[in-house]
Amino acid sequence: MALVPSPQWLDTGNNAWQLAAATFVGLQSIPGLTVLYGGIVKKKWAINSAFMAMYAFASVLVVWVLFDYNMAFGEQWFPFLGKPGLATSASFITGQAIVPAAASGMPPLTFPMATLIFFQFVFAAITVIILAGAVLGRMNFTAWMIFCPVWMTLVYTVGAFSLWGGGWLAGMGVADFSGGYVIHLAAGTSGFVAAWLVGPRLQADREHFPPNSLLMTLVGAGILWLGWNGFNGGDPYFANADAGAAVLNTNTCTAVALLVWTLMDKMAYGKPSVLGAVNGMIAGLVAITPAAGYVDGLGAIAIGVVAGIIPWLAMNKLQKASFMMKVDDTLSVLSTHGIAGLTGGLLTGIFANPDMLMYIGTDKEAPGVNVTGLLYGNANQLLLQAEGAAFIIVYNVIATFIILKVISFIVPLRMDEATLKVGDDAVHGETAYAIGTEGE
């Protein structure tokens, strides 16, 4: 085989970090959320919940390379959407990475398109997997099979292009460093709508839904936490100072939120809860995501404190109010992702420090972008953040409602009562644990 030198534009260090970061984010989904879901639900739903995550990961990748990547990051078609197109040709995936609609503010990246396509795929995949947490324990698997690729194509791509692909929200100046709006607010909002339309679990399951394995849940939570280093550390697109700052801020905020949530549990219920700590961890990870590269260390701590309080109140008070209990959001995705993402996005508009310059490149002379928040004299940024959030919320509510209504004309959204009583064995012919059975 003939040896061909690497093109001059390819920086092996940046490419290596980007591929590693993408792998970390992929690990958040499989096995991260796969085993977290499998462990946190009632025993009879362990296989179904884990399989929902694995199926979503696979189905999203197929539509991503066929047309969704270009809808999210390709040539502009509408102010909120790119032109659908294949992302599979040899010349396309081996060429130099670029985001066409955002190219005016960003030089060509120093790694191949294949790296960028895969990096953005793992973000897309985890979004619909997070959404799944709202409908665990009753959604018809066939309906889920249809929903995942359709929702990805018609909903996720719009938010991604609008904020990250050079679309209209990016042009306005709305800031979302790594997905507080594109991923978490979208998943929390759409998940709540899905939980409403699919309907609740069996009443017996709602009243008694103990985790079948807290230790498995913690394994998934740990993968999720450390995998977030790729989530926020990979978004500068370069292995530079911004990546390091984003990683440090991410872990600092998450630690603070976990401690505050645990303290809230202790004060409210008298006992610190490991499940509560996991929820606090998730809320911290989510809240820092839109701000990770835009705030300094004190900003990260402040966001962590708020992330330990506001989502806690949303989960333990708001979602337990009688009018909210009509919607069975299994894992309180609205609180830990939707409310946490909204909180982090708005706090970005307050705490964003203009001295946290995000360099577009690795050269000291490379152009940079910064975001200035209310605390540093720019009240307009907070208003922009609110406007961006409003668009994501309204679009996700309407589009998700329509998609699920259409699917409901094809297949039922909810399993039948007999299947709901049995669980995994009725849905998949499999059980999570063979101990005490003939398969032992």
From TrEMBL:
Gene3D superfamilies: Ammonium transporter AmtB like domains (1.10.3430.10). Coiled coil: none annotated. The keyword Transport applies. GO terms for molecular function: ammonium channel activity. The chain crosses the membrane at residues 16-38, 45-67, 116-136, 143-169, 181-199, 211-231, 243-262, 274-292, 298-318, 330-352, 389-411. It comes from the Bacteria. It is found in: Cell membrane; Membrane. Residues 16-433 form the Ammonium transporter AmtB-like domain. NCBIfam families: amt (TIGR00836). This is Ammonium transporter. It comes from Bradyrhizobium lablabi.
